[in-house]
Amino acid sequence: ATPPSFGGPTAPHVVVEEDPLVREDRLLDRARRALEGDPERTLELLATYDETCPAGLLAEERAFLEVDALRRLGRASAMRTRADAMLARYPRSAYATRVRAMLATTP
To answer: With 80 as the cut, is the pLDDT of residue 51 above it?
Structure first.
């Protein structure tokens, strides 16, 4: 049997895109949660962030998470390079004091 027709047009399939800032925040939240137990996973998630959000509004926090993950992994040289780049780009960052402390305590 054919379903009854109500005479009106059928509703179009609506695709609602996720707000870009919400997507960024969600990705960084996952990276942040991985940091304590699996800093390597944090770096993987940050790579996904870079691919998904190349002009991200939360790039400053992303940079901080990378510096912290590299520090936790004992990659001092890479951490220093990324920390210096972050401080040059975001000298008044809310994370600047923490990054400078990491630099001061990393051999």
So the answer is: yes
